[in-house]
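3.2 Worked example (two chains)
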Amino acid sequence: MSLTKPPRARGGSAEPAAAGRRPPAARTALRAAGLAAALAVLLAVLALSIGVGAKQLSVTEVWHGLVDSDSDSDSWTVVHEMRLPRTLLGLLVGTALGLAGGVMQALTRNPLADPGLLGINAGASAAVVSAGTFLGIATFDGYVWFALAGTAAVAVLVYAVGGGRGATPARLALAGSALNATLFSYVSAVMLLDTGALEKMRFWTVGSLASAQSGTVLRVLPFIATGLLLALALARPLNAMALGDDSARALGARPELIRAAAIVAVTLLCGAATAACGPIVFVGLMVPHFVRALTGPDLRWLFPYCAVLAPVLLLGADVLGRVLGRPGELQVGIVTAVLGGPFFLWFARRGKVARA
């Protein structure tokens, strides 16, 4: 790198190139305005999720289904018992997956870090299917703990096999892919050998919001809320760790504690989300990359944006699956996989995987 000053352009200004950047106050205002716009988009998608489905309802019927107390009407049944719990669960799960992807990418410095690609969701799936098949556990209260345990075990295993502190993006991706394939093969084998498990969990294993109930939303809320608060609190320490462990310690951070807290946050977010609606891939990969183009690498802004825009993607995919599959529906996990596959190929095509 040359230490000499660049020549002054003829007729140009002597100010350095950095002077052309927006001042910090302007950048902050712009990011805040963008976050407000993202919240507006989220509200629009929430309304769309409640108003659109396999059964066509007019705007008036949807409104009456929301505000009327007549529980015997068809509109009340569709809105309150089906679409509203589904929308709220999609909001929570989307937030969880988007934040988990952002935390994992920041922790591992791996652009391919995603709960699906690194096998985290597969760990939760294997634990839930095992609990349901061999132990007869069939309620969320029972198998959520197995999902959390499976998530934590695979997260630690991928990080260890990938090289720990010296992990590279390529090694983490290889370790995660190998574990992902192994665990999903196990899940498939168990379900094919047990027709009862196949019937109960065939939609769950592809990722679905169709079986959402108000009780599920209330049970998953504490886990995701705790993971959300922990992830947001880690934004500043993870920013410091991006400079390296030594620099982070010089800034007062404790890398070992930060890594442990990040794994706990990912475990709570991914484990609860997967237990509630099954493994949904690519949300945690796509959203942080899109957000990073808007906010830059500062995690204090990236994490809130991910928490808002990830449910936009998930609920939008769910609505799309309901519309395209009428009179039935396409499960949201299938739609996100179809959308995420081309994105992954485009990202790999750019060559950033090798240079990360």
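3.2.1 Second chain
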Amino acid sequence: MKSIKINPIVIILINVIAPTMYIFMSGKYLQIYLFTFAAALFVLMGRFKRLAGYLIVYGVMMGIYYITLNIKGIQFIGLFIIVIIQSVPCIALASILISKYNSAQLLSALETMRVPRVLVVAVTITLKYIPTFRREFSYITESMRLRGIGFTWKKPIKSFQYFIIPQLFRCAALAEEVTAAGLVKGIDAPMRRTSYYEEKATFADVAVFALFLTGLAGGFVWKLM
């Protein structure tokens, strides 16, 4: 099956609307619906490896929830897990923004939503720094391994020190690099920037978003019945 390309604006809007719906809609309907919708969107976009990881994480967390819920004294763990489970579909969809779209695409998409420039820049840098943080942490881990330094629970504070302090220094250096790159690209310009990646909404984008809203509306109708 040929995968479809979804405008990042659609995924951003879904991630904004979905968590707020827990305020208005209780019960398992929303949880099951968001899980199914996120899985279907992964299939449509051809992200099968990420879908497998999503299903494994969701399944493991549900297993922990049902196990701890039936053991006296640790029921609070199950209640904590179920709260996290509710956010897993949104986190999974947000991971698409990080892995599939580059910073220019995200910046262009956010600017079309007419949100403040400060918020646009902050969100874009945050989303794109996550994979950078993971890559830098792997470099530090490899460097520590080559020096014969590993994590040990006997001295957890000392072990974390070897990893966290270099990461903090790298964060400071990367912040300067990101700022310089943004200034070169005119990110602080007062006028709206043009972009090579600027795209209009397609039929697939409208259909996916309409289906998402229809499912939420169906949940309200089901609740009232």
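3.3 Remarks
DSSP finds eight helices and no strands in the chain.
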